[in-house]
Amino acid sequence: MYGSEPLLLVDLHSLNDETTRVGNHVFEFMGSIALARKLNRTLLVHTTAAERMHREHGELINIWPDMELTFSNDLVSFATVFDFFKFHCCRYYPAIFELKNCSDSVILVKLRFLQSYKYVASLGLTEIRHLLGTNETLTRIAREKLITPEKLAQSDHKLCVHSRRGDFLHTYHAAYSDTNFTLPAIQFVINKLNSSVERPLVIMIGDDLEWQTEITQLLKKSSIDSVLLPRSKEINSPIIDWQFSEMYCDTVLLTGSASTFGWWLAHVSKGQKVYYNSVYQKKKRFGDMFIPEDFFPPYWISLKLERSQISQILPANFKG
Length: 320
What we know:
Layout: E1 7-12, H1 22-39, E2 42-46, H2 47-56, E3 70-71, E4 80-83, E5 106-111, H3 117-120, H4 125-131, H5 136-144, H6 149-153, E6 157-163, H7 179-192, E7 200-206, H8 209-221, E8 226-228, H9 239-248, E9 251-254, H10 260-267, E10 273-277, H11 292-295, E11 301-306, E12 309-313
Parallel strand pairs: 1-2, 1-5, 2-3, 4-5, 6-7, 6-9, 7-8, 9-10, 10-11
Antiparallel strand pairs: 11-12
């Protein structure tokens, strides 16, 4: 049916959970691609997961180039099953890669979130940018229609500030973006920019347009040029933010740093200079589910707010 090559079937938790969003989906999908290559197996994704990717994220034209590589429940009976659904969201489990010791021709792996840079690091930035490539319409809008080229040309450095409020305001675990951290953190990062940067532009990107507008108004009172990245009237896709980041964001500041969407926006950014809020959880409610050294890449820089002042903290895995 599929030939004689060894197969890796993946059952993806987030793509079978209607409450999850694109950041979660991409972590699982990218991690599955990396895992299949490490195991030297042909990757097969369940038909229902592939259909959801096409239905909700059809603009990602490269991430699933061959839709024949899917499987139905009929193939499961031939597979040796490995269940990693018990693993926590945001930490790295190297035991997954020990599956290379399994010689069975068909294995089914149940994967949950895979939210660690370590799972996808082997793919490399160039390939990840390719896999997250979009159709021409969305790419054109990101380049020309969100912020005018004239406005972008007036600045010599774009600081993209990603915020996550929305559901984070009400979740039990994740810390949301707030004004107390965001304003001094923006000023801190601007002060850190090279002295050759004379005209920085702060670009607010996020899911709470009213709050972001308040931030831009407060920044302008401090003589900091800032704009709000608008929603496109032509296409309703949050992925356009990732495309914009790849094209324009010289520096990224993550203010709601547990956001997986923000993670990918920073990961593909043009300048590859990333700062993030060290407070990613509410009152340590993630417990051992979230290991910052596994979630945040080692060249990203952590910022801490203390007594209304921002300080820079180099995480344990920092590699500058």
